[in-house]
Amino acid sequence: MVELSIDALNAVFHALADPTRRAILDELRQGERNVGELAAPFDMSLAAASKHIRVLENAGLVRREVRGRTHVCRLDAAPMHAGMEWIRHYEQFWQDRLGTLAALLEAEDRATAPQTGTQLENKEDER
């Protein structure tokens, strides 16, 4: 599993937990945006948008650059990799559980399926 401090991983998950911040990240996937452009779709103040962006910055997901009076943001998706690795760590757990469930359901289906003529003949041959 990728080594990442607990605080950094918590910051990534905290940042991604909010739908507005996820939408901001989606917008930044298309390229750099200034704070006003990021705030516009949400009908929020620049201060409110700045707070969301600060959370994303603290998680390392957004880089902000000041160009004159304009704050321009860009996506840095690298910290998401650690989150994906953490989730992937549990993938085998769920694969095993789902595999067991599938086997149980298949066994139940076989046990309750109507018997065909061939199956009846085989059972009679076994006697």
Class, according to the CATH hierarchy?
Mainly Alpha
Strand order of the largest sheet: 1-3-2
The coarse overall form would be elongated
Q: In CATH terms, what is the fold-level topology?
A: Arc Repressor Mutant, subunit A
Q: Give the number of DSSP strands.
A: 3
Radius of gyration: 26 Å
What is the mean pLDDT? 88
Assigned CATH architecture:
Orthogonal Bundle
In DSSP terms, counting alpha (H) and pi (I) runs of 4 or more, how many helices? 7
Order of helices and strands: HHEHHEEHHH
What is the CATH superfamily classification?
A: Winged helix-like DNA-binding domain superfamily/Winged helix DNA-binding domain
Number of spatially distinct domains: 1
Estimated structural class: mainly alpha
What percentage of amino acids are in beta strands? Answer: 5-15%
Helix content: 55-70%
> In angstroms, what separates the terminal alpha carbons?
55 Å
Description:
This protein is mainly alpha-helical. The protein has one domain: Winged helix-like DNA-binding domain superfamily/Winged helix DNA-binding domain (Arc Repressor Mutant, subunit A). The protein has seven helices and three strands, in the order ααβααββααα. The chain has a three-stranded antiparallel β-sheet with strand order 1-3-2. Helix 1 runs antiparallel to helix 4 and helix 1 packs across helix 5. The radius of gyration is 26 Å and the shape is elongated. 14% of the residues are buried.
